[in-house]
Amino acid sequence: MKRLLSLENLTLLSIVLAILTGLYLPELSQKLKPLGDVFLRLLKMIIVPLVFVSVFGAILGLESISRFKKLGVRTFLYYLTTTAMAVTTGLLLVLIFQPGKGENPRPLSPHEVPEPISLGQVIMGIIPENPIKALAEGKVLQVIFFAILLGLAFLTVERFKQELVKNITDGFSDALVRLTRWVVLLTPVGVFALVSYLVARFGIDIILSLWEYVLVVVLGLLIHALVNLPLVALLFGRYNPYRYMLDVREALLIAFSTASSAATLPVSMELARTKGKVRKEVAGFVLPLGATINMDGTALYEAVAAVFIANVYGIELTPEKLITIFLTVTLASIGAAAIPGAGLVLLALVLSSAGIPLEGIGLIVAVDRFLDMLRTAVNVWGDLNGARILNKLLK
Ligand code: ASP
């Protein structure tokens, strides 16, 4: 009975109940929204201190710059390879099924389109002008950048000072894990409120109206989560990926409900360590970085969305354009923040570099939240596998 009523099962049940409540009792769902907001806020409260302490602590735990290089290079290779697999899957599917390709291409409307974010802005966004400001504003990538450099610098100071700081950092890290456990107890309630509110607000009809596009994205995400990533896990991690998926399902459900990799980070850190037996210094480096820059689901979705929009406007996609989409989608998934809807904003960068009208974003906005939930779960799943595989590779 106790097993049946585990937190994971309760969370799953609450998602099902939430969908029903959202559909049939929309007023109640609207009223319950504050409960979801409380849960989300509690998770967010942990993110910034956790990211700083884990990344900084991880670098200290690696004990030498050469071990950092080893882990760093492998982590990036893993991220790039799996993201490329995701984009390729998305592009192949969308080119096979060609959603949005009709006889009458939609004419472009003359109104102005928003300025896309430039590549330079994305890159400069990594270096903090002031680390305290980056912490205060929750600029996670900047926090990571500073934590890595500061950690590396600490590896060069006297041993006893290093030990002192390491012990303090460890203390904070353990306390943050405990805090996460407390917040996680609220998951079934929080998830219920979040999901039922979304269903009540957006409804299911809207998803049906764009079914071809939605189907290709969902199919791609499923293939990536259930075939591509497990294959990499089996080859390089030598563990049963489906068993692991069940073990960490709480993180995937939270990712689905919150549509935020960052909000899920405290939970994925805990599960990678307890269920995946990932060492602290590996989890502390790979997961915060992964939550921020490794977004397989987002990359896949952006590739499909770009081709779908091009199809709707009757734009010919030359091989050069497809290569541009491939490259910019990869970059955009790195630059997207780990919060709801970030992928949609960065899609503007992809569209403008491939010469696809930005106003096309308006076509897919309605179903974006739903797809965001799914792609975020895939993003987090990619990170969790990365942590376990790199844990093995670094032994
Ligand atoms: N919501 C996604 C995440 O947090 C990013 C996106 O919008 O694709 O991982």
Main features:
mainly alpha, 395 residues, binds aspartic acid, Proton glutamate symport protein, 0% strand
Oligomer: single chain
* Secondary structure tally: strands: 0
CATH class: Mainly Alpha
State the major sheet: none
Flag low-confidence runs.
none
Order of helices and strands: HHHHHHHHHHHHHHHHHHHH
| Total tally of structural domains | 1
Q: Identify the bound ligands.
A: aspartic acid
Distance between the termini: 39 Å
Note down, in words, how this protein is organized.
The structure is a single chain. The chain is an all-alpha fold and 395 residues long. It has a single domain (7-393), classed as Proton glutamate symport protein (Orthogonal Bundle). The chain has 20 helices and no strands. The chain has helices at residues 7-24, 26-31, 33-62, 65-97, 119-124, 131-137, 140-154, 159-184, 187-202, 205-209, 211-237, 241-247, 249-258, 261-274, 280-293, 296-312, 319-335, 342-353, 361-364, 368-393. α4 packs antiparallel against α20 and α11 runs parallel beside α20 (368-393). The radius of gyration is 21 Å and the shape is globular.
